[in-house]
Specification:
This protein is α+β, with helices and mostly antiparallel strands. Helix content is 47%, strand content 14%. It folds into 2 domains: 64 residues; 115 residues, Four Helix Bundle (Hemerythrin (Met), subunit A) (Up-down Bundle), CATH 1.20.120.
Length: 199
């Protein structure tokens, strides 16, 4: 497909069904019928510029059919402290752009972030963080097997040349989310619903 400049782009005014396109907004997380602000005229290679009617942020549907920015992968968690939440958000966003190795590296870093947030010293050997979390009960014996998977996959992403498979990265971030749920979100929910019950 050759670039045809502005003459290949049409603006839509909302008066036809082509002016609206259903998608999930990455900014507000809502399923919306987005306003198609403009699109290319080529039937074979459609590009749409979208605006969310809920939050007004924009997105682009590329020729491959995918919408960017995409919705962050995995579950949104509540009650995470600042640095931990920032790292978890980064890992989720890595999955959206197929940066699977980067996702696993960040998930490994999250183990350190959790340990430091819970009182460990920054800059210690990495293995000491898992020991620290285990000795203080944040990681139980039953959890250690899958927490080790986070560490091992992060190490492989760092030291191995081969591309990280999507399925492996999905499991890494899934285990990371579960750790964060147990360490932070469940306590947050207990306080939240305890207050709601008047306790």
């Amino acid at each position: 497909m050759t670039f045809e400049g502005h003459k290949s782009i049409i603006r839509l005014d909302g008066s036809t069904s082509a002016s609206w396109y259903p998608y999930k907004c990455a900014t507000c997380g809502r399923d919306v019928s987005g306003a198609v602000v403009a699109k290319t005229t080529s039937v074979a290679h459609v590009v749409r510029w979208l605006q969310c009617p809920n939050c007004s942020d924009g997105a682009v549907q590329r020729m491959d059919g995918n919408i960017y920015p995409g919705v962050a992968f995995g579950m949104k968690l509540e009650g995470l402290p600042g640095e931990v939440e920032a790292a978890y958000t980064e890992a989720r966003n890595c999955m959206v752009v197929d940066a699977y190795g980067a996702c696993e590296l960040v998930c490994r870093k999250i183990l350190m972030c959790v340990a430091v947030e819970k009182g460990a010293k920054e800059g210690e050997p990495f293995s000491s963080y898992l020991t620290y979390l285990g000795e203080r009960g944040f990681i139980t014996d039953a959890m250690m097997g899958w927490v080790e998977i986070i560490r091992e996959n992060g190490n492989k992403a760092t030291h191995k040349i081969e591309k990280v498979a999507k399925e492996r990265a999905e499991s890494t971030i899934m285990f990371t989310a579960e750790l964060l749920r147990i360490v932070y979100e469940m306590e947050f929910m207990a306080k939240k619903y305890g207050k709601a019950a008047g306790k």
